[in-house]
């Protein structure tokens, strides 16, 4: 049930509506409950702050007549209301105006409300003065392009009740009909009298004042050199108008060198700001993340060089306006890299708590990991691309092809602390680590394809495993980290200081790449990312090991990451673990023979690397990915589809939620 705290009659596109401000008794109740007939009368009442609950308050528009306008939304949540603007008086075009002699007045010579400070005589004023002294002629009245002139009786009734002048307000709100891509829409509401307009204007702004989660003053860092150099244009044309419409004061700083934003955050006073916004790519976000976390650690007298220390969550939130080349953070937290959607989530005050990992080497603190740490192939790409900066963005593709041709692998020793959800694999992993670590292990997918069905006397050996695989993929859809994720909301009962010997395993072998992912790693070139099922706030991260193989085997891994990373664990040369802590120790006699380490796109050094996760220690202006309802369709194409190449997997299309 819902209670109505304010109700008024209004006009939208010349159609009468009943505007109601309602408070639902339950947050989950978002349906439009009908009002009683006695509440359809106009109410002149003020709203009390005690009656407004921002999370469950909504604006409802009910057409008084049967005619409905598809442009008018039925419900607008108070959290999605951006701004309210009062309009000036405008003449009502729905009725014919008459002078004192009951003769029609030409609407072309009617003078509208003008600014009193302007004293210049316009053409309309001159025409009015001439018409007062001239001989009266039959004026030509323009007809409106409307079907209402065919219904003279209805038009006459409407003209009798409509006033000559109407005042109104203009509201801007967030359209969330598309759960992933948000947009701004406008709605003009006309009232019969100026008193009613002022009352509605006051009540709506009173409701907006209760939204305490919204920021009022932001500090924005714009990187004009990141990505394709479009950050400044994106911010000025797409983002800044939205902030201005929501009455948010923004202090903008255009960075001119690397680590300028990090140094500013660590040294300047930030008490006047409600949040920090980065306009750029993942590198710009890494600067803000490092500056804010290091500043908080210094203020709390935390020894950041201690690998066992727990970091503290800062009070400020970080907003990401994607304008880079990859935008993995924006893809992982909102579902796409749309600057308008990210700006609107900042304005409405959405909050998403994510995990951050600390990276330590033998000397102490090395870096924070927000997205990905890689040793081997991807680290070598970053190191090689830094030498080819004169090639521009093309250097990444050329460096990747160069490292693929080299096909280097590195002997490494790993100590893994498994998460609680991955402890069931401990026994199997230990047995595998005792033997040859380079021997291929047949994953579940290949066991299904090679298994037989005794109940059908082996007559349906391939159809049965495919059906099992279809069920496996459909059930996996619920494992995605999404908005209001239940997995991330579970209370953390793990003691970070305790050491569980049963959850610690050791691995040793030659690996082409070792990847630690705290986010899925989605981007324009990878629809699902390398680790689609990793959660952003559950206190764990994914460890993906790609063992040494022929170039065709590693090419198959890269192809699977680009096309569909959900089945990456089914590859014979790939192992995936859900862990809380990882210790990487390269075993190379010469330093030149060891691989390169990269964390969030920046090179780091160290002979021994320890990665440890910290749960929900950073707040972002983001809502999380909002998936559509799961459509029960066949996620796999016919198995008889022709392969494009024998070493590539069968291409499968999965009907995914909102992606």
Automatic annotation (TrEMBL):
GO terms for biological process: ceramide metabolic process. GO terms for molecular function: ceramide kinase activity. It comes from the Eukaryota. It holds the Pfam family DAGK_cat. Residues 213-363 form the DAGKc domain. One of its GO terms (cellular component) is membrane. InterPro entries: ATP-NAD_kinase_N, Diacylglycerol_kinase_cat_dom, Lipid_Phosphate_FormReg, NAD/diacylglycerol_kinase_sf. This is DAGKc domain-containing protein.
